[in-house]
């Protein structure tokens, strides 16, 4: 793909739409994927590890899939929690179009596939599930997490899957240091070379505590 990455806003590579059979939320379904998005031929291993090692999402409220790609996490959560509003957030417009197409084909009217700036500022999330784009680089990844983790509701959890050899342990240490007040960070599962990290927001940041930038 040359300089065309799955985290490009407008991929220049050919779309090459394809239909792929996958299993999500206990159902065998057909989804549409395309070139220029992450893992177009299957549910990638990291996402499978995340989905297999997280509890059912909250039944209502706002839920976030950060870095949605063509939508395996968002579609799963939307099927599991039909009364919740699921935000599939990605910078890749082609990926967002695929999420919308797949949600419509599955009859899921509770999915909003949008760019980060299109999420209203007052929306807080009862849960986050993410296979974050590690390859964007450490600074951009940290900025992404610093933007969205504080939007967890009190007593709500964010779940993140990271490949061990791409820095999951150092990311866990960074999360624990950055979200040291009002949060806890734990590794909850390991599988197929991936770690699942859980960030829980316990409550408001204590008075006088200054979160690290």
How would you describe this structure to a colleague?
This protein is an alpha/beta fold and 213 residues long. It has one domain: Vaccinia Virus protein VP39 (Rossmann fold). 24% of the residues lie in helices and 30% in strands. It contains five helices and nine strands. The protein has a seven-stranded mixed β-sheet, sandwiched between helices. It has a two-stranded antiparallel ribbon with strand order 1-2. It is globular and about 45 Å long. It starts with 17 loop residues before the first strand and ends in a 12-residue tail after the last strand.
Primary descriptors:
213 residues, alpha/beta, Rossmann fold, two-stranded antiparallel ribbon, 24% helix, 30% strand, disordered N terminus, disordered C terminus
């Amino acid at each position: 793909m040359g300089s065309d990455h799955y985290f490009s806003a407008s991929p220049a590579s050919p779309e090459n739409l394809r239909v792929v059979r996958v299993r999500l939320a206990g159902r065998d379904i057909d989804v549409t994927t395309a070139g220029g998005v992450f893992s177009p031929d299957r549910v990638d291993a990291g996402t499978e590890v995340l989905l297999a090692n997280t509890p059912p999402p909250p039944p209502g409220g706002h839920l976030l899939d950060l870095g949605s790609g063509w939508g395996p996490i968002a579609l799963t959560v939307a099927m599991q929690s039909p009364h919740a509003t699921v935000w599939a957030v990605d910078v890749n417009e082609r990926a967002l179009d695929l999420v919308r197409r797949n949600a419509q084909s599955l009859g899921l009217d509770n999915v909003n596939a949008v760019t980060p700036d299109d999420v209203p500022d007052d929306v807080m999330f009862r849960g986050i599930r993410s296979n974050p784009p590690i390859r964007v680089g450490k600074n951009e990844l940290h900025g992404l997490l610093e933007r969205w983790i504080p939007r967890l509701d009190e007593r709500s959890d964010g779940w993140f899957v990271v490949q061990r050899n791409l820095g999951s342990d150092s990311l866990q240490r960074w999360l624990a240091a950055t979200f040291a007040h009002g949060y806890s960070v734990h590794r909850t599962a390991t599988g197929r070379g991936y770690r699942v990290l859980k960030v829980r927001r316990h409550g408001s940041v204590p008075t006088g505590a200054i979160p690290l930038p």
